[in-house]
Amino acid sequence: MTISPPLRFGIIGLGNMGAAHADSLLARKIPRAELAAVCDVEAERMNRFAGGQVKAFSTAEALIKSRTCNAVLIATAHYEHTTLGIAALAAGLHVMVEKPISVHKADAERLIAAYEARPDKDQVFAAMFNQRTDPKYVKLKQLIDTGELGEIRRISWIITDWFRSEAYYASGGWRATWKGEGGGVLINQCPHQLDLMQWLFGLPVRVRAHVALGKWHQIEVEDQVTAYLEYANGASGVFITTTGEAPGTNRLEVAAERGRVVIEEGKIRWTRNTVPMSEYSRTTSERFGRPDTWQVEIPTNGNGGQHVEILQNFTNAVLDGKPLIAPAGEGIRSVELGNAMLLSGLTDKTVDLPLDGKAYEKLLKKLIADSKAEKKTGKTVSSDDFSKSHTR
Ligand SMILES: NC(=O)c1ccc[n+]([C@@H]2O[C@H](COP(=O)([O-])OP(=O)(O)OC[C@H]3O[C@@H](n4cnc5c(N)ncnc54)[C@H](O)[C@@H]3O)[C@@H](O)[C@H]2O)c1
Atom 11, ligand 1: which residue's CA is nearest? Predict the structure, then answer.
């Protein structure tokens, strides 16, 4: 169905992220898009819309059926991404879902099946993987996809600058519980990096992880993970994350035939081998030699358009048929990778991919059934703190 601008958004969930998206739309940061409707189960979160142009709904179902909007943006707790996504797709709406698209692989498959069965083939279904707009990752993807960097041998991502306080975990009853959130650092903070891992390098074929539950916080889910990954071409990877370390590190290092790329502290640096390392190894007569290198300056400016760029891209996809930066269907891969790490850590076994989604869902249900966590909620994170923590 062709839509005449503006694209009318309905936002479901007006917490930290949903409110930030609402602010962007209200501030007209996304040309040809407007905020038409909002919904939150906590009525006071919609107070600021009372009596205005934006319609407020007390249930997501009412918003979806209301015909006030052409597109919904789902920014609720994670399990509802699946149920509300399915309902919105079945109602013929365009859908943008926050990360992760679902908590586990079987739910992601259900959500994607609803998209496959959508009533209108023009419906757009996207995911908020805003870090795909960061020019450093875009450049690295170009280096890989064009073959410039050569075959990859080793990947290492230390992403330990997701520090979170006890106050953060107390800011929502759903947070950091198996029942409410479905996991910890892998399901809340790391979907961005897990998505970039699969976007850049594809999925590994095997995962072995060590996972610590509530090691640094009073929570029942994982707040520390060290995973070893094996890829089909023989490359290896390490993924290290925690919410319990400050200041923490965010360093992605890729070793490939044509040298080493490091993304760290806002820069991308490529130490380029003048001769691919395998070729050098085969052909040199030097016993302790190594390929000569050049330092390659790769200019990048800032962090890209992030959330606003993804919203703009989604709007352009609906109105003009432009390709999506982050189609939601691709979101299953980061879910699968995170699930595999958790499954490996919790069962103390190596996990082969593709992951058995049903087996993982069974494990998660058992974790929920066995949960003894009593969640204390209290101080909320201010939106100022939230904006700072999401501007990198
Ligand atoms: N892309 C990013 O950079 C980014 C950053 C932070 C959070 N997120 C994601 O955004 C989502 C929300 O996170 P948050 O930090 O804003 O959480 P939050 O707890 O602050 O907000 C969630 C809101 O959803 C509401 N809600 C829950 N179920 C609902 C329902 N059925 N109908 C209507 N409202 C409902 C809650 O009342 C709450 O106001 C999560 O998926 C999270 O992973 C993304």
Answer: 75
